[in-house]
Amino acid sequence: MAQHLKTLLNGTQELQPLLAKVLSLSALQRHFINAAPTNLVQSSQVQVLGLQLGTLSVAVSNATVAAKLRQLAPELVVQMQNRGCEVSGIRVKVQVSFDRLQPKPAPHKLSKTAQNALNELSLNLNDDSPLKLALKKMTRAKS
């Protein structure tokens, strides 16, 4: 499938620049993944965004990994240069992928019958009983 797409993009004059950009970004992605520490790359989603005026822009999904990559940027630049990449600096961005938010469950409310039953139970307990205090607090909070 990838080969068919490559052939299609290469066969159309207007799409050849797009193919060149995709291949360039793909190569930069591979070089960066191979240059960066494996544990950092595996613990976070890493995506090369582009190369502009010698600055490689990289997005990661974890702020801690981004901070570590920023510390390692000078070493990574040297490694990328040794691999033939024309990189003079690395800019790391954090792009957290958001999961769909789960709706909060509605708080449960006690029925009047349940409140009355808990009140009656608390009346039968000793005044200094922790259970009595908890029952009174529960019926006040749930009403």
Description:
With 143 residues, the chain is of the alpha+beta class. It folds into two domains: 7-94, DnaA, N-terminal domain (GMP Synthetase, Chain A, domain 3), CATH 3.30.300; 112-141, no CATH class. The chain is built from six helices and three strands, in the order αααββαβαα. 56% of the residues lie in helices and 13% in strands. Helix 5 (112-123) packs antiparallel against helix 6. It has helices spanning 2-11, 16-35, 38-43, 63-82, 112-123, 130-141; strands at 46-52, 55-60, 89-94. A three-stranded mixed β-sheet has the order 1-2-3, with helices on one face. It is elongated, with a radius of gyration of 30 Å.
List the helices and strands and how they pair.
Elements: H1 2-11, H2 16-35, H3 38-43, E1 46-52, E2 55-60, H4 63-82, E3 89-94, H5 112-123, H6 130-141
Parallel strand pairs: 2-3
Antiparallel strand pairs: 1-2
Brief descriptors of the model:
single chain, 143 residues, alpha+beta, GMP Synthetase, Chain A, domain 3, 56% helix, elongated
* CATH homologous superfamily annotation of the largest domain: DnaA, N-terminal domain
What is the overall silhouette? elongated
The count of strands amounts to 3
Helix coverage percent of residues? 55-70%
